[in-house]
């Protein structure tokens, strides 16, 4: 079994991946500055270090004399709108800090990296489903920063012997089926938690951003991927690198798209409640359709998603009702969004 350093392991996808690594028998050290993550989300079986992933001194101290087999680098900023309003924050938080982390890794001979990339590297798609060799023309600062880190890894692979897997996530969604881990962004901008909040009455009616898209029901289509399936992709990526594979870039999506209205219908089915919704203008920068071509990850990593849209909604609903249902002191959620 391997010893894995996980940056951003207190975040949404990171915390689910940490749980999956531990369940598979790996040793895990989480580095997270808790600027966006939640201490309570870190599995108690992991060692936790509260530090910035770009803090050279803290990282160097952590890596000295400790043989990490690989690093999974989740730490970073994820909000498209914020990246447009405050690009410096994204350049610093996503690019500069990654460069610092990779310097420390290099100095300590840790050269296997799994990186959280994004479908945002593609920009407005020319073809859907989107294969990995689709042109890379991000339309947001966020997407640009993810692409730059991918390129940095490619350069470091050529020059310094790094081997890496960059996973281009489509729409991560859902929660751990046991209801003890889930999505808790603050502020929350994602469709599924907002729809569930609207159904519960803990959030305002859902605004449907755009009803005039060239899609069958006029609303935008996305490829929703269960967070535990996404966690599995990280495990497979680590195993792939440890087995000596060269790595590369992989889409992580199901290959199936669902419209906003389909998501709302699934939310109503699962919750047994109406989801109050109002029609609103398109959100700037939102393409009509983003759906992965996931053939490469299936073929090369043997990855298969286990869950569909209804599972995603069911697990998200379980998590959110535990959060808001006055049982936050239980094994369920944690306060603070
Ligand atoms: N969306 C929406 N209302 C909301 C939030 C999102 O209609 O309050 C739509 C959004 O326009 C997109 C889809 O839901 O088509 C998924 O958006 P989300 O923010 O969850 O993820 P993104 O695709 O932006 O990464």
TrEMBL record:
GO biological process: galactose catabolic process via UDP-galactose, Leloir pathway
MF-aspect GO terms: UDP-glucose 4-epimerase activity
Keywords: Carbohydrate metabolism, Galactose metabolism, Isomerase, NAD
Catalytic activity reported: UDP-alpha-D-glucose = UDP-alpha-D-galactose
Cofactor: NAD(+)
The enzyme's E.C. designation: 5.1.3.2
Pfam (any one): Epimerase
Residues annotated as domain NAD-dependent epimerase/dehydratase: 4-253
Pathway note: Carbohydrate metabolism; galactose metabolism
DNA-binding keyword on record: no
InterPro entries noted in UniProt: Epimerase_deHydtase (IPR001509), NAD(P)-bd_dom_sf (IPR036291), UDP_G4E (IPR005886)
Family per similarity comment: Belongs to the NAD(P)-dependent epimerase/dehydratase family.
Subunit structure: Homodimer.
Protein name: UDP-glucose 4-epimerase
């Amino acid at each position: 079994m391997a010893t894995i350093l996980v940056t951003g392991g207190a975040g949404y996808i990171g915390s689910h991946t940490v749980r999956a690594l531990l369940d598979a028998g790996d040793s895990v050290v989480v580095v997270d500055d808790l600027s966006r993550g939640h201490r309570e989300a870190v599995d108690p079986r992991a060692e936790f270090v509260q530090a910035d992933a770009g803090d050279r001194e803290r990282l160097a101290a952590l890596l000295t004399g400790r043989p990490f087999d690989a690093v999974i680098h989740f730490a970073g900023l994820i909000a498209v709108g914020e990246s447009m309003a405050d690009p410096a924050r994204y350049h610093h938080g996503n690019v500069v800090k990654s460069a610092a982390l990779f310097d420390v890794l290099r100095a300590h001979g840790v050269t296997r990296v799994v990186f959280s990339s994004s479908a945002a590297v593609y920009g407005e798609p020319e073809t859907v489903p989107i294969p990995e060799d689709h042109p890379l023309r991000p339309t947001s600062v966020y997407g640009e920063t993810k692409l730059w880190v991918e390129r940095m890894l490619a350069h470091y692979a050529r020059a310094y012997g790094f081997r890496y897997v960059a996973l281009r996530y489509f729409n991560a969604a859902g929660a751990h089926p046991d209801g003890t881990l889930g999505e808790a962004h603050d502020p929350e901008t994602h469709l599924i938690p907002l729809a569930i909040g609207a159904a519960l009455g803990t959030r305002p009616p859902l605004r449907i951003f755009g009803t005039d898209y060239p899609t069958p029901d006029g609303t935008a289509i996305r490829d929703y991927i269960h967070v535990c399936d996404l966690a599995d992709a990280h495990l497979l990526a680590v195993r792939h690198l440890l087995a000596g594979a060269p790595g590369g870039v992989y889409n992580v999506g199901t290959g199936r798209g669902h419209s906003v209205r389909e998501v709302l219908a699934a939310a109503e089915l699962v919750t047994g409640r109406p989801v109050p919704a109002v029609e609103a203008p398109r959100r700037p920068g939102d393409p009509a359709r983003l759906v992965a071509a996931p053939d490469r990850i299936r073929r090369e990593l043997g990855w298969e998603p286990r869950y569909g849209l209804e599972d995603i909604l069911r697990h998200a609903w379980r998590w959110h009702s535990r959060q808001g249902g006055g049982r936050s002191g239980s094994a369920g959620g944690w306060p603070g969004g």
